[in-house]
Amino acid sequence: MAWFVVIVAGLFEVAMAYSLKLSDGFTRPLPSVGFVAFALLSFGLLAYALKSLDVGTAYAVWTGIGAVGTAVLGMALLGEEASPVRIVSVALIVCGVIGLNLSGGGH
Q1: How many domains does the chain have?
Q2: What does the angle CA 18 – CA 21 – CA 25 come to, to the nearest 5 degrees?
């Protein structure tokens, strides 16, 4: 259950980053409020999951979901470049998170 919470927290982190972009430097009220709400949800869920998970691995998974999700969202919805180097870099982040879990840190 705690890993599911980390995954949901990571997805809220992606929503937080997207809202930050849409807020246009906190000049647009609705995306700015969304940023704050998603940040609170993301950090709150991560804090809850850390009651039963190792901090290093859980934090790496959370940030990995945020980094990969935000990069993919940027390429898919915001017109950011989807170069081969960027795609390979995203894949390397995924491999690193999987590696941490396989090394025993995901218990």
Answers
A1: 1
A2: 145
Coil, strand or helix at 49: helix
Of the CA atoms within 13 Å of residue 84, those in its CB half-sphere come to 0
32-88 pLDDT, tens digit per residue, is: 999 999 999 999 999 999 999 999 999 999 999 999 999 999 999 999 999 999 999
| Residue-level pLDDT at 106 | 56
- What range does the domain containing 29 cover? 1-103
pLDDT of residue 100: 85
Alpha-helix runs per DSSP H in the chain: 2-22, 29-49, 55-77, 84-100
Burial class (CB within 10 angstroms; exposed 0-12, middle 13-18, buried 19+) of 63: middle
| Residue 105 pLDDT greater than 80, yes or no | no
The Cα–Cα gap between 35 and 23 comes to 8
Angle, in degrees to the nearest 10, between helices 55-77 and 84-100 = 160
